[in-house]
Amino acid sequence: MHLLLPLLASLLFVGALIFMKRASEAGANSVTTLCISNLGSGIIFSVFWSLGGTFRGWGEIWQPAVIAGLFVLGLTFTFAAIEKGDVSIATPIFGVKVVFVAFLVTLMGLQELPASVWEAAIMATLGIGMIQWTGRGKTHHVSLTVALALAAALSYATFDVLVQRWAPAWGVGRFLPIVYWIVGLSSLPLLPKLPWQEIRKRRVFVPLAAGSLLISLQAICIVSTLAIYGDAARVNVVYSLRGLWGVVLAWAVAKRWGGAEADHSGRTMVARLVGAIILAGAVALVVLSEISD
């Protein structure tokens, strides 16, 4: 049942990126989106303090600090990727994270993965490849978008595995608030440099605020699941369904309100959709393996 949380997170993530893309097109740069999102996460994750836990002392504070640094790094690459390219390209590429996670949990000896998870990771990678390499249409900066998305995937994969490794000793109610307080504090020096006059405009503020809220909510779903249940490999294969939602929702929204995806041919979007369906097959494989365990 814990895999329902990453499923919800996959939908929230794509919704967040669609809003952030609209904010970017309205005038918000990646620094603005990063700063607002980080501050929002710091505030929202404060509610976890009531869940309790163990503060392991200042000598161990480097652990949540490293996690916070990886989160900020991943978010920086994420927002830069969607600023440069299509949501329907960048979002599926983020799914390569499932392969990174599978290698890292094995390398660190955190989990011995069954063959079905490796098969699912390979399927997910094939689906991602099909979405990426077919029908690029009028998308600009494709290579840069892919590079930024891969960098984000690696940052978040390391983040997930280290949360699984370190969070249990602290407890959810201590580790997560400290991580996201550090994330929020890291953005405070940026506040005076933000284009506040631009941010106050409705066309920028509304999608920026909505995207920041959804980023925080999807982070709660993923990070709390990893901190409580571990199981980073399966969680990330299910989370890779965002590639499917990224194709379908980005295209639908672009058709309704405008956007780069609306300029692509039906053939291009069908090809991306087929790749996303392969991702869905990978998720089904993981869920079935979970039921059989």
List keywords for this structure.
293 residues, 13 helices, mainly alpha
Notes on the structure:
- This protein has one domain (4-292).
- It is mainly α and 293 residues long.
- The two termini are 13 Å apart.
- 77% of the residues lie in helices and 0% in strands.
- The longest helix has 29 residues, at 142-170.
- It contains 13 helices and no strands.
- Helix 4 packs antiparallel against helix 12.
- Spatial shape: globular
C-alpha end-to-end distance = 13 Å
State the order of secondary-structure elements, H for helix, E for strand: HHHHHHHHHHHHH
Number of strands: 0
- Total tally of structural domains: 1
Tally of separate helices: 13
What is the helical fraction, as a range of percent?
Answer: over 70%
Structural class: mainly alpha
Let me know the largest β-sheet: none
Low-pLDDT runs of 5+ residues are 135-139
**Rg calc:** 18 Å
**How much strand?**
under 5%
Q: If you average the pLDDT, what whole number results?
A: 83
